[in-house]
Amino acid sequence: MKYHIEKNSVQETLVIPLYGRKVCSERFPHLFKDPEAERLCAMLDYDFAEKGKKMESAAGLFGALEVAQRQYDVGCEVRDYLKAHPRAAVVNLGCGLDDTFRKCDNGTCRGYNIDLPDVIAVRNELLPPRERETNLGFDLNDGRWMDAVDGAEGAVFFATGVFYYFKTEDMKALFRKLAGRFPGAVLAFDACNGRGAKLMTKTWLKEAGITDVDAYFSLEDASALRGWSEDFSSVSAKSYMRGYRDIYGEVGLFHKLMIRFCDSLVKMVIVRIEFRGRTPA
Ligand SMILES: C[S@@+](CC[C@H](N)C(=O)[O-])C[C@H]1O[C@@H](n2cnc3c(N)ncnc32)[C@H](O)[C@@H]1O
Question: Cβ(136)–Cβ(166) under 8 Å?
């Protein structure tokens, strides 16, 4: 049985990173072996022909490298947090069909995968929750999902390919709420500058019906986020393609040039925000 994904919907956007991880698993197995992405793509009722053709081009393949690499990057953040907080909540914001929790599971942490209810309905069929894992169908802007997350032993939140669909004011409200509610937690997500967001309007964001990109989140310099909340104790950013594992030496000339372009002109980064812990009474 195959599961249908609606065309021209925000939910459709979850197919692109999943397919990108499958393509990287086939083309760069020494970097991104991901049998789960291969298995999931085979289970979807979705016409991959057009996307497949696009990803065969050098530029398309770079897009695939980006999505696979950012999953690797946030996985590093999650594992790092779990070293000091082995029973923490691992919270995937806008999870789509991403299985980072399972890839990072240390046997004691708890995973929460949050996305819009119709995406979670598909996820429940394809990736039904396992032990210590919960799938939650919510709009992230509806703060009630936070009631379901037990952050008593720490929490690490992450989002990949999600905040480009958020208005800056909504993101700010979400981050402030998280920082107030989960002291000592960490939040990691990918971001790019306005130029990068404009480039995306031609592809991903257009497919999600977003044209007025200026109202949506982009980031020239991560330090701009420091003023968003007094509950942030640190904000830092690392290169997407080189900050956690440098793949520059593993790719051909065109992709090397793209990495340089993305680092210097598009400012593609993984942002890490640490929330201030509670001062003991
Ligand atoms: C490009 S996909 C990325 C999926 C996944 N993070 C990955 O990297 O494979 C964007 C995801 O964000 C979800 N999303 C967008 N806006 C959302 C919102 N307001 N609340 C919850 N999920 C949202 C979409 O449904 C979609 O699954």
Answer: no
Atom of ligand 1 nearest to the CA of 70: 8
d(CA 100, CA 209): 27
Q: The domain containing residue 161 runs over which residues? A: 3-275
Q: Which of 74, 142, 81 is CA-nearest to residue 114?
A: 142
For residue range 116-149, list pLDDT tens digits in order. 998 899 899 889 999 999 999 999 999 999 999 9
Number of domains in the chain: 1
CB of 161 sitting under 6 A from ligand 1: yes
| CB-ligand 1 contact for 139 (6 Å cutoff) | yes
Confidence of residue 200 (pLDDT cuts 50, 70, 90): confident
Indicate which CATH number applies to the domain containing 186. Answer: 3.40.50.150
What separation in Å is there between the alpha carbon of 249 and the centre of ligand 1? 31
